[in-house]
Amino acid sequence: MRSLEQIGALVEREKSEGAASARADELLRLGEEVLEHWVAAKNKAPTSAKSEGFRLLALHRQGAKSVPSLNACRETCRELVYHYNLISLEPDHADTEKRLTLMRHLARHLYYFVSGKMQSEQLGEFCCSSRPLRLNDAS
Amino acid sequence: MSGEVKKYKKVAYYPGCALEGTGHAYNRSTKEVGKTLGLELEEVENWNCCGAMEVKNIDPKVQTYLSSRVMSIAANEMGHDVVMAPCNGCYHNLKKAEYDLKNDEASRQVVDRISTKAGHKTYRSGQVETIHALDWIKHGIGEEALRAKVTNTLSGLKVANYYGCMYTRPRHIFPEKDKGAGTESTSQPHFMDDLLEAAGATNVDFPLKTACCGGAHTLSDSDLSTKLVLNIIQAAEKSGANVIATECPTCHSGLEMHQIRAERKFGVKTSVKILYFTQLLGLALGLSPRTVGVQENVSDSFPLLKEMKLA
After folding, report:
1. Taking CA atoms, what residue in B is nearest to A125?
2. Per-position b or e across B234-257, b if 16+ CB within 10 A of its CB
3. CATH code at position B228
4. Same domain? B210 vs B180
5. pTM here?
6. Are B188 and B79 within one domain?
7. What is residue A76's three-state secondary structure?
8. Residues B162 and B302 in one domain
9. What is the span of the domain harbouring residue B60?
């Protein structure tokens, strides 16, 4: 598994080279790796199972089990899979480049959203009623 | 006139805090569009914050009470059975309070205790139906009637409809959605698409329509917020949009502010314009840009609107 920083650098690239299907594979894989980090941070082993034919969706389901707010990226994962399917089914379609670009934006969103959530969890809620203060009050 | 249409002709209006501040143009355009379409709003008297921010973190049940008080005034003091909240945060919180009061005895007890102390009737689950501004226009008027009232078509505008994260999530607090034809979808929301298409706009296929705008990170990590917004804006542009339509004041402000910040901080300039869907509908109905508050937006859409003969 690549580090989150490495994943970030890859999703922030403007584009990659190679055949459309290989580029789509890579973007889907980057999405999976982002979710692997999320699951691993919860001290669980990232699943190798598939849901609806995609490991990305199984990883999302696994990650959302303990944190329902991860469902805020559910549609992002599904759109990533949808665009992957479009490219896989019609690699020579006139819209393939556009679809790859949108796939990259989706993978990028997933990376920002998940890495941001991981960061927030370390901070506690960032406001005057933050979690550390509440916990102090409770003790 | 069907019962559903009639029910939405006059509703209690809960603008919420944002629409009195950064979302003033949304408030203004919502009221103007309603007036033009013959839909009546009666503002909830002495309304309070829905408890969206700090209160939720201190005690979620106090948030439930705050939202319930708004619904209690609308139902018990004003005699309404529908409350319309155009802000996604308010809409979400009133829906959540409704769900909690229906399903959680502890929430009912807390709300009853605080309501009694505050000196107003306790809100009971089911007294009102909370709707969004999109539901109000979609069900109160509908696409056909809207199309008939358009005097200034939006043709030429390519719109990415951005719903944000709270309009459809979590699914269980929106039992009326995902019920098939004519109802809203939580995975692929389309009410804004439907209304703007009826007004003549072309909707682009936009894959980040329910993505998080990064609002929660604005204070803790502004750069991350800017990156989330920039990515949404760039995806809208790559989808072929020249306008992003919004229906949430927080998302709208975030998109506008971080569009500017992205240019200053990261040197990335984007040109897509950001307008509330009510502003776009108002323009299509023949209202002037000033009447719907386009001058209040940070995103300067006047050149585009002039080019499209909408200003």
Report:
1. B57
2. bbbbbbebbbbbbbbbbbbbbbbb
3. 3.40.50.11810
4. yes
5. 0.93
6. no
7. helix
8. yes
9. 3-131
